[in-house]
Amino acid sequence: MVQVQAQPDASRPIAPEKVREGIDLTVNGERFVHTGDPQMPLLWYLRDVLRLTGTKYGGELSGADLVLLDGKAVPAMGVPMARLAQRKVTTVEGLAGADGSLHPLQQAFIDEDAIGCGYCTPGWLIAALDLLNRKPRPSDDDIDQLPVLCRCGCHTRVRRAIRRVANGGQS
Amino acid sequence: MSAGVQLSRRRFLQVLAGTAGALVIGIPLAEAADPPLPPALLGDDYRGLGAYVRIDSDGNVLIGTRDPDTGTGTSTALPRIIADELDADWNRVGVIPLGLGVDNRNGQPFWRYGHQTGGLGDSIPAAWADLRQAGALARWLLTQAAARRLGVPAERLRCQAGTVIAPDGRRFGYGDLAEAASKIALPTAPLPLKSPDRYTLIGQPAGDVDARALVTGQSRYAIDSDFAGALVAVLAHCPWHDGSLGTIDTADALAVKGVVKVVQLRPEANRLPGQTVRAPAVAVLAENTWAALQGRARLKLRWQPGASGSAGSAALEQQATDLLDDKNATGQLVRSDGDVDSAGKKAARRVEATYFQPWLAHATPEPMNCLVRLDKDRATLVVPTQAPQQAWAVVQRLTGLAPDQIEIQVPRVGGGYGRRLDHDYVAEAVMLAKAVDKPVRLLWTRQEDLAQDFYRPASVQRLNAVVDRKRNLIAWTQRVASASALAGRGVPDDRLWASELQADQLPAGLVPNYRSSWYRLDSPIPRGPHRGMPHLANAFAAESFVDEIAHALKENPLDTRLRLLGEPRQIPLANGGTLDTGRLANVLRLVAERIEWKNWLRSVNGLGIACWHVNGAYVAHAVEAALQGEKLGIVRAVCAVDVGRVINPLGLEGQVAGATLDALSAALNLAVTFKDGQVQQHGYKDYPLAGMAQLPRAVEVIVVPGDRVPAGASFLAMPTAAPALANAVFRASAVRVRRLPLMKELLRLL
């Protein structure tokens, strides 16, 4: 095994790091200031910095990394922190009420057992919420467009869960 | 402990009181100190117990689940098997994954929990065989404790939803009895199990035990786990597993803020694939994922191809076709009944067809990852694996630790499909942790995940059938050419067919003259187990071919199948089981009825049907497909299964519907191709799992009730979905698709 170690450059004097402009953002109702790399994608900020691991890494187009940005579903992989100043981010951890009461869509996922391995579940929830926000009674064609990939095949049960919410909790 | 109740030949259930007065049923250990056990199950007592069931004085019940749950529902079904036998109140049952149970027996590993694999379809049968005894023992002890307290013979007490009830109506909650129960001597013989009419949970629908944690984002997968001070590692793998690193320049990578180290990895010599590093790789270790990814992007690497550098999937397919065309080539004989050659003399009709199926990747939703911490005399890992015992073997070899010094936690796994039976990523993480002397959190990107897979091999199959004057199918020959998924895995040459063909697959046993054989191809492209293998490929060929025979005879393909199955009877199988033709015909009839098969000729949309059997379970699909221009719509999908006794009908329905969609997604869209030894698919853009728009909006699942020993269902519904679809497409378009992925081929043929 060959190792290469990062060596501090002794010739350069140690200067205090320049104070970075912080990026002010709200995640699940809480305010945070990001002072790290402004190019860091939101996904890694959520997962590594805030330790909000409900938003998953699944790769481009997987949909596992969807979050609500000012109410609209976007893949967190594709959003650098630089674009998030004064923006509101909601992740799957932020869907339930502060008292632990579930959002009707979360309850519908439980009621319909709309879960396979569960890895894509947060993505489906965010994508479906975005849809329901835009269109409280979505058609099947609307539901067809949800941008989430799943290998366990929970699609039909997710569809039932969304219909259940659209029907006011009835399956 | 005075006595144990036999769980299986080598494992015994025992009881130990936690210090808080809990009743804990588990398995005694050897004299191991501080064994790696889930503290939640043990309370304050860490000595000498591997636990399945803990009943606390407050009446809460905690059940440990031993098999990894890759989305197959074992973390719900296994505890319900125990809880039913215990007569527990399901609302008060909590479930935790047990992690690997390994003890040190004179330096050798002893697998404390016995069965510990997930996604192979044998979790439920294995649990049925031994886990009920854990619940029965706890219930027996609680009943004995109540009997003593009440002064009533135990035989006159009954249990219901976490309480013991006396004939006069007096009742005790299990929590009140737990401490007393823990002091009662164990019975000396296995306890009788409940009669099925007393089941309260088995056969009743139950939602996933992790559902609330999952919908609130609280569930932790291995990829979400962390140790203090762990470095994130991302890898740049050599595109050729047998290639090597030419030049490397790490300066720019190391200049990225947060990057700590760059480490080279190489496969160990003379190790089976899946037990060592998959391909030469350069790892960038950093304080966070983003820094590691940036570091990797700034690596300047030049890789050199090995022998696989010239491998291509197109050339291999041509080889396969040539092999099947070559009159002098002989394959390995897998099964031979009667005499297919002389049967040919009675031919009134001959049918031949050749089917192609592509390479497939696993594309698990949760990519390969592994968290590891190495201490002086201890390794602690969090691994998304289907086979923790095999992961243990990799860690043990690389660390030299004693069996019980290795702790492997297995939280819920984001999909397995056979990929996580190999542990190359575990080897990588352990090597990296050794190299940097710090905990390591290894993460593969999706691109690495697709490029560094052990692929389902492509195959070309040629089928020949002979039909006599009375329309009887009298001979069937199935020849499969492929590069075996077992090659290079320590399997003898004359058994390499086992991953490519099944001796018992349909219509074996139903045709008097039957021959199946496998034609060996060699390929440097790494291969491995894949969900539903080899049923997935062979059912597509065989069940498409039955339709082609029916078409040649101008018959209703349902009738052709039912005639082939004949009278209900038991046909002995080579694997020791039996084929029950009555049960198979039944699932076939059920889907036919549901989809209104009687309209198969008149229907504007195409109807297709297929059936199969897998390890004592039976499945049939019926699909209705509509073709409008170049747009294919799957209007309906019906699936009937017969698995014997059903533990959790809701879970089973989910598995069956899910496997149907997974199989349809693969059949419609998916193929991995290689050029110059390199994978040409780099992400979901090139490997497009079907989205909702392509898939049916519902899967109508019919479950046949039964009381036989439950069979597994994790991939049962995979094999028949694609042939039913192809058969429906034929009815809708008159185009017979013999090559997958279906959409590409259909558009070519239309």
How is this structure best described in words?
The complex is a heterodimer of chains A (171) and B (750). Chain A is α+β, with helices and mostly antiparallel strands. Chain A has 2 domains: 23-94, Beta-grasp domain (Ubiquitin-like (UB roll), Roll); 104-166, Orthogonal Bundle (DNA polymerase, domain 1). Helix content of chain A is 27%, strand content 15%. Chain A has 5 helices and 6 strands, in the order βββαβββαααα. In chain A, a hairpin with a 2-residue loop joins β2 (23-27) and β3. In chain A, α2 (104-111) packs across α5. Chain A starts with a strand and ends in a 5-residue tail after the last helix. The model of chain A has no long low-confidence stretch (mean pLDDT 92). Residues 6-10, 29-37 and 42-50 of chain B have low confidence and may be disordered. In chain B, a hairpin with a 5-residue loop joins β23 and β24. The longest helix of chain B has 21 residues, at 649-669. Chain B folds into 3 domains: 5-206, 2-Layer Sandwich (Aldehyde Oxidoreductase, domain 4); 222-307 and 368-443, 2-Layer Sandwich (Aldehyde Oxidoreductase, domain 4); 313-360 and 455-749, Aldehyde Oxidoreductase, domain 4 (2-Layer Sandwich), CATH 3.30.365.10. Chain B is an alpha+beta fold and 750 residues long. Chains A and B meet through β1, α1, α2, α3 and α4 of A and α6, β14, α8, α12 and α13 of B.
